[in-house]
Amino acid sequence: MRFQRRLKEANLFPWNDIGPMRENDGDPTAIRVDPVDFAGRVLRWGWNLPDRFSQPHSKRVDWDQWRDIPQAELYKVVAASVDISPDFLTDDETFSLKLARKLRLPNEFLKRYRIAEAKLDQADDGMATVDGDHVRLGDFARFAKARSRNWSLPDAFPPAAASEQAPAGAKWPWGSYETELLKHLAAAVEEFWIKYEPGKPLTAPTNAKIDEWLKARGLGSARVREIMAQIIRADDAPRGPRSRS
């Protein structure tokens, strides 16, 4: 009964609207549908599919086209960053995380989109939107490779232009040199001190707060955490209890 119900529902859909159809052994009434196109459509209907069934995100990026596209909507750029074809929505759909989950897009896509969306147009290391709701792929490449993230990108993903490798004044003295401890150090600066405002004591984090945060990131040595908190502390940051006056 379940099969018959699904077959009846599927037969009502004009499959030629989402992909090419082929006649099955010369029978014009029997068609073959691409499994990925099929999955993308029926998941939108709320069907459950086996985990091993072809998924909408199994289509890879057409890099012959996308390596020459300078900018696109954020969700398309994030999709390309995890090598998922950015064209997973139909023309009449608007992107949302709810729809992305419905289409079973992987957790790495969801994570990157949430972080990137939260950082749009921020002054520190965010990406500036262009033409309303687009971002430049080169800006995203710089954003993805920031020390606090270091996301992997497909080899064909357009790199940041030389002038975009880091925001002005944001390069560390050690250049491209990297260690796990330096990643923790840079992440702590970004988390706590970028937004510090001299003269406003409440914007200055305590060493104890930084210690707790570094410990939660997996940095086990209390001595190393203490040294890091001291190194990144602003020279004019207040000591002792914070006053709201």
Give Rg in angstroms.
24 Å
Task: Please give the number of β-strands.
Answer: 4
Which structural category fits the helices and strands? mainly alpha
Tell me the strand percentage band.
5-15%
Oligomeric assembly: single chain
Q: What is the share of helical residues? A: 25-40%
- What sequence of helices (H) and strands (E) makes up the elements? HEEHHEHHHEHHHH
Summed up, the domain count is: 3
Number of helical segments? 10
Mean pLDDT: 78
C-alpha end-to-end distance: 71 Å
Rough outline: elongated
Largest sheet, described in full? 2 strands, antiparallel
The main sheet orders its strands as: 1-2
Low-confidence stretches: 162-170
Give a structural overview.
Strand 1 and strand 2 form a beta hairpin. This protein has a two-stranded antiparallel ribbon. Strands 3-4 form a two-stranded antiparallel ribbon. Helix 4 (74-81) crosses helix 6 (107-119) and helix 9 (207-216) packs across helix 10 (222-232). The longest helix is centred in the last third of the chain and has 14 residues, at 180-193. The protein has helices spanning 2-11, 35-44, 63-66, 74-81, 97-102, 107-119, 137-144, 180-193, 207-216, 222-232, and strands spanning 22-24, 27-32, 71-73, 134-136. With 245 residues, it is mainly alpha-helical. It starts with a helix and ends in a 13-residue tail after the last helix. It has 10 helices and 4 strands; from the N terminus they run H-E-E-H-H-E-H-H-H-E-H-H-H-H. Helices cover 38% and strands 6% of the residues.
